[in-house]
Amino acid sequence: MKANVGIYKFHLGADGGGDKRALALAEHLSTKHNVWLITSERPDLPALESYFDVDLSRVRLVVFDRSRRHLAAASRLFRWRRPGQIAARLDKTLQIRALGLDVFVNNSFPSNLVCPARRGVYMCMFPHPPDRGREGPGLARRAYHALMDAAERSLIGRPAPDALDSYDVITANSLYTSGWIQRRWGRDSEVVYSACDTAGPPSEKEKVILHVGRFNGDDGPEVHHKRQDVLLEAFRGMEGVRREGWRLHFAGSVLPGESSSGFAARLAEGARGLPVSFHFNADLETLRGLYRRAAVYWHATGYGFDAEAFPAKQEHFGMTTVEAMSAGAVPVVLNSGGQREIVTHGSDGFLWEDLRGLSDHTTRLINDTRLRAHMSALAVASSARFSRANFTESVNRIVERLAADE
């Protein structure tokens, strides 16, 4: 059955895992269905196609209309002095509903958008904290949510006191995320591991330790910080490794804004005098080349934050770890979050608890070339579990099941 499918990603262009999921899914579903990619601002599609190695020629792009005529239409539903917040939220629903979608895939984090189609899939990268505003104190706050509910009931034809209730399926990008969906939201979810590309085949390995991740300077309780600062300081303390000629390479996108660019600049300044290289906003071929040359892959997301108190700060899955393994780089990563589902300690990589463990496991790999070669081969084989094909087929089965469900 050919269905009309909308894929929603409010911000495109961060060069992260959410973008890859949306674009890989759009490419795959467009071979069988009519697909709309829905976003807030017009992206540079040729650049995205090149960076993520996708073909979007069959995908229709929908950019939200900022003319405010939809906002005005939504606002007329109310007689309220400040309808802006409500109208802006309902505006998206109005514009998407006009597409006549059979299935809506919400791949935007963190979204509270009510499903604007007959059937819906909510793709969760990690569950944001529940909205406690409806039960919170204050007559104004309770009145606001009551007004929101009435407006959405008028527009979508059914009450939606919680946006999640309007979706048929919630997916999780790992067992770790699925567990926190149950704990935070009290809901079941289907695990669909993220779309990971192979960066192989491995080339001749060099004395390279690699880390790939966004340079994010923000540090709120729900912010996913990659902790490049921790890895830099760990490498600074490994004098013996440096003396053997090993170099540390950082690659990743620098997010817009002073916070992230400032963080990247401070890292570069702090690395002066060390055999450390930075590849800011590296293109796909540069990344693949680094993966293939790297002998060891480092990851420290979540380090220094208690996993129970700060679950969102842990690595929710670990796409770059998988991609490094596919090119034969042996992972030495923090024993937390989704990394435990990717790396089998002592087999295809190492999991560390503290910086002493990071140093010891890395030094062992560097000093034992036979062990490194053996673990490298196992890492390549293990990475195949998380292929882009497995991701797209898993979501495709969900979409076709919903599209056929009258």
Question: Overall pLDDT, averaged?
Answer: 87
- CATH homologous superfamily of the largest domain? Glycogen Phosphorylase B
CATH-defined topology of the largest domain: Rossmann fold
Report the sheet-strand fraction: 5-15%
In the CATH scheme, the class of the largest domain would be: Alpha Beta
Low-confidence stretches: 73-84, 132-138
Helix content: 40-55%
Give the helices and strands as they follow along the chain.
Answer: EHEHEHHEEHEHEEHHEHEHEHEHEHHH
Distance from N terminus to C terminus (CA atoms, Å) equals: 12 Å
Q: Looking at the structure, what is the overall shape?
A: globular
Gyration radius (Cα, Å) is: 23 Å
List the helices and strands and how they pair.
Elements: E1 4-8, H1 17-29, E2 34-39, H2 45-52, E3 60-63, H3 69-75, H4 84-97, E4 103-106, E5 119-124, H5 139-156, E6 169-172, H6 175-185, E7 190-191, E8 208-212, H7 228-236, H8 239-243, E9 247-252, H9 258-270, E10 276-280, H10 284-293, E11 296-299, H11 319-326, E12 330-334, H12 339-342, E13 350-352, H13 355-367, H14 369-383, H15 388-404
Characteristics:
406 residues; alpha/beta; Rossmann fold; seven-stranded parallel sheet; six-stranded parallel sheet; 15 helices; 41% helix
Question: Your description of this structure?
Answer:
- With 406 residues, the chain is an alpha/beta fold.
- The protein has 2 domains: 4-195 and 388-404, Rossmann fold (3-Layer(aba) Sandwich), CATH 3.40.50.2000; 208-386, Rossmann fold (3-Layer(aba) Sandwich).
- 41% of the residues lie in helices and 15% in strands.
- It contains 15 helices and 13 strands.
- The longest helix is centred in the middle third of the chain and has 18 residues, at 139-156.
- The chain starts with a strand and ends with a helix.
- Residues 73-84 and 132-138 have low confidence and may be disordered.
